[in-house]
Amino acid sequence: MFKEKECSRVNGFIGLLLIIVLAAGGVFAITMQEPLPVVSGILIISIAVLLLTGLTVVQPNQANVITFFGKYLGVIRESGFYMTIPLSIHKKVSLRVRNFNSAKLKVNDVDGNPIEIAAVVVFSVVDSAKALFEVDEYETFVEIQSETALRHVASKYPYDSVEGAGFSLRSNAEEIAMELSDELQNRLGVAGVQVIESRLTHLAYSTEIASAMLQRQQAAAIISAREKIVEGAVSMVQLAIQRLEAEGAVELDEERKAAMINNLLVAVVSDRSAQPVINTSTLY
C-alpha cells in the first residue's frame, strides 16, 4: 500500500540559474568552432535541457506527486518553485476542501416505503499517494461511494417513527448525519480522503405514496392534539369540582357531578364554540 512521503528537491531558482550557466557555457563552446569544444558544448546544452525537465511549480494547497519511470519518489506539499529529478513525471493533486452534492436517490426505507433522499459531502485529500495510486480517479470513487453509503444508511431506518421509538430519518437528522460520515470515512479512507462533514439536503416520500403518507401524518397530528385537549379538559373539570366543594358554593351529588363533567367536557373538547343553554328548572 502506498503512503505519502517527502520527495527530495532543490530550490528552483538555484536550479534555473545552473541551467542558464550551463546553456551559456555550451553556446560559448560551440562558437569556438573547434571539434572538441563543439562536442562538449552540445553535451552541456543537452544536460541543461535535461535539467529543465525537473523544474516544477507547486501552488498553495496543492500536492505535486513525483514518479520516475513508474517508481514513486514522493510528494512536494510546500508551495514554491523547485527542481527535482530530471525526466520525472509530476502529477498535481488538490488538497482544498471540496463539496459533493449527490443526486436525488430513490431508496426504500426499512419499512419498504419508497423515499427520495440526497446529501452533501464535504471532503479533502489528506494522502495524495493513496488518492492517485490506490484507486482509479479518486473523485469518481468519492461520488460512487458517497451514493452507496447514503443508500445503505437510508435503508436502515424508517422515514418517520410513528410510535416515537428509535431513530428515524426525519426526526434524527444529526445522528443520521454522523453515521453517514462514519461510514463514508470507512469507505473513502483507502483513497486518502478525509470526510469533514456530511448532511442530508433532501428527504421526502416518493411521489406515488406522498399523498397517503401525508394523510397518515395529519391523522397522527389530530390524534395527538385530541389527546392533549382531553387531558387538559379533565384537569380543568377536576379543578372546578374541587374548588366548588372546597368553597362550599354548591353541594353536588353524584348525578349533578356527572352532568357538570359532561357539560364541561363537551364545551372544552368540542371543535365548535359551545352554545349556552339556560336551565330554569331543576334537574329532576
TrEMBL record:
Assigned keywords, A-Z: Hydrolase, Protease
GO molecular function: peptidase activity
One GO-annotated biological process of the protein: proteolysis
Keyword Protease: yes
One Pfam family recorded for the sequence: Band_7
Presence of keyword Hydrolase: yes
Domain Band positions: 53-217
InterPro entries given in the database record: Band_7, Band_7/SPFH_dom_sf
Name assigned to this protein: Regulator of protease activity HflC, stomatin/prohibitin superfamily
Native source organism of the sequence: Paenibacillus aquistagni
